Automatic annotation (TrEMBL):
SUPFAM superfamilies cross-referenced by the UniProt entry: S-adenosyl-L-methionine-dependent methyltransferases (SSF53335)
Keyword Isomerase tagged: no
Location relative to the cell: Nucleus
A GO term for molecular function: N-terminal protein N-methyltransferase activity
This protein's UniProt keywords: Methyltransferase, Nucleus, S-adenosyl-L-methionine, Transferase
Catalytic activity, reaction form: N-terminal L-prolyl-L-prolyl-L-lysyl-[protein] + 2 S-adenosyl-L-methionine = N-terminal N,N-dimethyl-L-prolyl-L-prolyl-L-lysyl-[protein] + 2 S-adenosyl-L-homocysteine + 2 H(+); N-terminal L-seryl-L-prolyl-L-lysyl-[protein] + 3 S-adenosyl-L-methionine = N-terminal N,N,N-trimethyl-L-seryl-L-prolyl-L-lysyl-[protein] + 3 S-adenosyl-L-homocysteine + 3 H(+); N-terminal L-alanyl-L-prolyl-L-lysyl-[protein] + 3 S-adenosyl-L-methionine = N-terminal N,N,N-trimethyl-L-alanyl-L-prolyl-L-lysyl-[protein] + 3 S-adenosyl-L-homocysteine + 3 H(+)
Recorded GO CC terms: cytoplasm; nucleus
Entry annotated with the keyword S-adenosyl-L-methionine: yes
Taxonomic placement: Eukaryota, Metazoa, Chordata, Craniata, Vertebrata
Protein name as catalogued: protein N-terminal methyltransferase
Enzyme Commission numbers on file: 2.1.1.244
Positions annotated to bind S-adenosyl-L-methionine: 68, 73, 90-92, 118-119, 134
Pfam families named in the record: Methyltransf_PK
Length: 222
């Protein structure tokens, strides 16, 4: 991917500039596809419920991290209903400020709001049962993604999981000039996960999304 991202600093700063101009709304977070939010959340809930609960090897429900959280759409509808505490990390301070309002009463169960790009973010060791990374890996270079996944692994509690949910291209790496991101195919994502020393414990495709957008796959990693 080195050739695609010619200048790492520009790749990141262009993305920050793009998001700075996006309205802090669900529709803004979803690039005009606000209507798919419920389908997305329901699919994610069904996916997560395979892991959490009582019993041997199950993932706990004390604390989750929402990566690229935006205004907290996923925190509000997926994570706060399932976890005691949720932390949010996003590169855009305005989104995090809006999250405090958008999350309403439940925002008192947010532990931390971190304003940071994931390439620079160091999650606290041993804090999280679930680290949820949705629609944001395209903003990381390959080496930064591998490094970040390694930091995530150290941040997990016993039986914790890292979840990546993202668009996958049909073949290779497809750049998006508009928001300064890239879309990788599934094989490339799997290879980067392996490079980070994680294994995929479950993987599925999100169904019922509009035909014109890239397929979305969800991967649970340990």
């Amino acid at each position: 991917m080195g050739d695609i991202v010619e200048d790492e600093a520009t790749f990141y700063s262009n993305a920050e500039d793009y998001w700075r101009d996006i309205p802090p709304t669900v529709d803004g977070m979803l690039g005009g596809y606000g209507g798919i939010s419920s389908i997305d959340i329901n699919g994610s809930k069904a996916f997560l419920q395979k892991f959490i609960g009582e019993g041997e090897g199950k993932t706990g429900t004390s604390c989750a991290l929402d990566c690229g959280a935006g205004i907290g759409r996923i925190t509000k509808r997926l994570l706060l209903p399932l976890f005691k505490t949720v932390d949010l990390v996003d590169v855009t301070q305005e989104f995090l400020d809006k999250a405090k309002v958008y999350l309403g009463e439940e925002s008192k169960r947010v532990g931390n709001y971190y304003c940071s790009g994931l390439q620079d973010f160091l999650p606290e060791t041993g804090r999280y049962d679930v680290i949820w990374i949705q629609w944001v890996i395209g903003h990381l270079t390959d080496s930064h993604l591998v490094d970040f996944l390694q930091r995530c692994q150290k941040a997990l509690r016993p039986n914790g999981i890292v979840v990546i949910k993202d668009n996958v291209s049909y073949e290779g790496v497809v750049p998006d000039e508009v928001d300064s991101s890239i879309c990788r195919d599934l094989e490339i994502v799997r290879n980067l996960v392996g490079k980070a020393g994680l294994r995929i414990v479950h993987e599925e495709q999100q169904m019922n999304f509009p035909k014109e957008i890239y397929q979305v796959h969800t991967l649970a990693l340990r």
